[in-house]
Specification:
Shape: elongated
Largest sheet: 3 strands, antiparallel
Strand content: under 5%
């Protein structure tokens, strides 16, 4: 696997999904990217001769600094005329990143380009950026300042980046960002309180955290990658102020962002119905979709292939038609998992929650309509199987037999009283619907409202099961 693809997949494991728009964004003046390009292009077939102490020659350092220096470097550059690698962070970072990525290596007093380095130069600018973006999460930036280890700073880089992405583009000092960070993730306080006081005089741990975060995350991580902008070069007596760059908006998707078009809604269900009708597929969309919600109510998820194979046992089909069945089952499972992701991440930082109630109720309404048959009795008959989906999961994953007399008591002990009452309420709603259906020859508003409440109760239960297992 090539360098770019490996980097992209690693970012995905970090839940950093790169937006399609990034690959059309005009990448200009990215300090680290320009510095790496300058360094690699300075190495010819014979290699780049290093100084006696093994540092980059001053001519190359000067060329790197001209393109790789950030706003934060200005306070140093304006007073210096010497271009020694060991005296300039930007030059040291460029070389360190190149060596960590194994783009270059030292050989007989020279810096030479490796096979990976040659491969890197064949990538386009956007692919090169992804490689650098990925590696910066693994670089030990504390190496460059010699202060305490402070892993809690670098470990918060992902969270801080997402926090920046979802804030308005206003210039703020880092202590403001860290305060917002701690408000969202109070668990970080335990690590911060273990920070030591040396090198920081009389400052408390939270001030220390903000100071290290500014140095290691903002000045030496986000700025070199062009992820933030600095209002102006700071002096030793003032705090720097930072805002997200336009690039950051184009780079990564919203944390745990979901594909809204996959959420179950009136439109999504109609699309599934159209496919089923067009392909002449015999799938009970209502029953089998609710079955899938129960199947994936626990984490870890069952293998998709196994679930599909179990469903396919209902259908004696082969060849192309079998492929059509499997394809729509895969699409249904993707929508189920996407819907779960949407409605179980309410406390996730960076997720936009404004329309979630509307989305949820639209889903309930859509399934309530899908459940309805021409006659109330047929509708009630269709709903009888739904609680069994939950009971099967309770038996399989929690060893709870729904036939036992003290079921509600067992559920209270295993989960809590509210969950047990939800199960009881679901069964009472079904019983009432069955009684009402016997008296009705056609659907009435009260009956249809009861169907909607039943569907909503079902989803409350499976979402609760899913949330508990996260």
């Amino acid at each position: 696997m090539d360098l770019y693809q490996t980097s992209l997949e690693n970012l995905q494991t970090l839940t950093l999904n790169i937006k399609d728009e990034f690959f059309t964004y005009d990448l200009k003046n990215i300090p680290l990217l320009e510095g790496i390009n300058t360094l690699l292009n300075a190495i010819d077939a014979k290699g780049l001769k290093l100084t006696q102490k093994g540092f980059l020659p001053t001519k190359v350092v000067k060329s790197v600094l001209e393109v790789a220096s950030t706003t934060a470097d200005e306070r140093f550059l304006k007073y210096q005329t010497r271009f020694y690698e060991e005296e300039h962070f930007s030059a040291s970072l460029v070389r360190t990143v190149a060596e960590v990525l194994k783009l270059v290596k030292v050989q007989k007093g020279k810096l030479v380009l490796t096979k990976k380095g040659s491969q890197f130069l064949t990538l386009d600018r956007h692919q090169r950026y992804i490689v650098l973006f990925n590696i910066m999460f693994g670089i030990n930036l504390g190496y460059f300042d010699g202060h305490q280890e402070a892993l809690c700073v670098h470990n918060s880089s992902l969270i801080m980046l997402q926090l920046l992405r979802n804030k308005n583009r206003d210039f703020r000092s880092v202590d403001v960002y860290t305060a917002i960070l701690l408000e969202s993730y109070p668990a970080l306080e335990d690590d911060i309180e273990r920070l030591e006081f040396y090198d920081y005089a009389d400052k408390d741990q939270f001030d220390i955290f903000a100071l290290i975060a500014e140095l290691r995350l903002f000045e030496r991580f986000f700025l070199p990658l062009g992820l933030v902008e600095m209002e102006q070069a700071k002096t030793y007596m003032e705090d720097g102020k930072y805002a997200k760059s336009e690039l950051l908006d184009y780079l990564i998707e919203e944390k745990n962002a979901v594909k809204k078009e996959l959420l179950f809604s009136k439109k999504t269900i109609k699309e599934f119905q159209d496919t089923i009708r067009t392909k002449n597929i015999e799938i009970d969309l209502f029953e089998e979709t609710l079955f899938l919600f129960a199947q994936f109510a626990d984490i870890p998820n069952p293998p998709t292939e196994v679930v599909i194979e179990n469903l396919m046992q209902r259908h004696a089909v082969i060849g192309t038609l079998r492929d059509d069945y499997e394809k729509i089952y895969k699409q249904l499972i993707e929508s189920v998992l996407t819907t779960y992701e949407e409605f179980t991440q309410l406390d996730t930082v960076g997720v936009q929650r404004e329309n979630i109630v509307e989305e949820y109720m639209q889903m309930i309404d859509s399934f309530a309509v899908l459940a309805q048959a021409t006659k109330p009795f047929t509708t009630a008959q269709r709903l009888q199987i739904v609680p069994m989906f939950i009971f099967d999961i309770l038996k399989l994953h929690h060893k709870i037999d729904y036939l036992q007399e003290d079921l509600i008591l067992v559920l209270k002990e295993k989960f809590d009283e509210e969950f047990a009452m939800d199960i009881g309420h679901l069964m009472l709603l079904l019983e009432q619907l069955q009684k009402d259906a016997k008296k009705l020859k056609k659907n009435k508003p009260n009956f249809l409202q009861g169907v909607k409440e039943f569907i909503q109760s079902y989803f409350m239960i499976v979402l609760e099961l899913r949330s508990r297992s996260l």
